[in-house]
TrEMBL record:
Family: Belongs to the claudin family.
Transmembrane segments: 7-30, 82-105, 117-141, 167-187
Subcellular location: Cell junction, Tight junction; Cell membrane
UniProt keyword list: Cell junction, Cell membrane, Membrane, Tight junction, Transmembrane, Transmembrane helix
Primary location recorded for the protein, binned into one broad class: other
Pfam families per UniProt: PMP22_Claudin
Keyword Transmembrane helix: yes
Record bears the keyword Isomerase: no
Entry protein name: Claudin
Role summary: Claudins function as major constituents of the tight junction complexes that regulate the permeability of epithelia.
Membrane topology according to the record: Multi-pass membrane protein
Amino acid sequence: MALVFRIAMQFVGLLLSLLGWVLSIITTYLPHWKNLNLDLNEMENWTMGLWQTCVTQEEVGVQCKDFDSFLALPVELRVSRILMFLSNGLGFPGLLVSGFGLDCLRIGERQQDLKKRLLILGGILFWISGITTLIPVSWVAHMTVQEFWDETIPEIVPRWEFGEALFIGWFAGFSLLLGGCLLNCAACSTQAPLASGHYAGTMVSAVAEMQTQCPYLENGTADPKV
């Protein structure tokens, strides 16, 4: 029962980590980190991401323009690019390492210590990936709130608000953290027997040896040579 529970925990942790990694990649390139609605022109909607700014108009459609210079960006967007790249880069090796550490995988099934270390390493990589996703998303959200309530800006000036990418990024970061926690909990739980086939073979050998000794025990001798 403990083995089944641990395998289920490993699968859930790996699936959550995979989901968080995919959503983190989507968040990186989605141009909806900030939204801007113009009261004077309700048919025009502006969005901003890490790489470009887009405007949606009812007649023209969506038009996007990439940022010209990396150094000209606000500091939160520059740091967010680097951290999101780091998050995306750590997620893939985390999946590979954790995959090889699963108990259901036949490769290295007799090397339980190695599989345990692989699971722990994969969980740590997912933790770092989740943290490096939550930091830029939360930082951009914090700056957006500060600018929204800035009293030095006239009320007539439109204010940026939260975009959909921020919520996707939060969900991705917490999924990576939770997935890493489940993998580490599964790795640190009690180890099960090596394998059911090895255990069954040992039992069969013991039963056969007992059957061999039974006739001599009935004759009152413990040694088959007597």
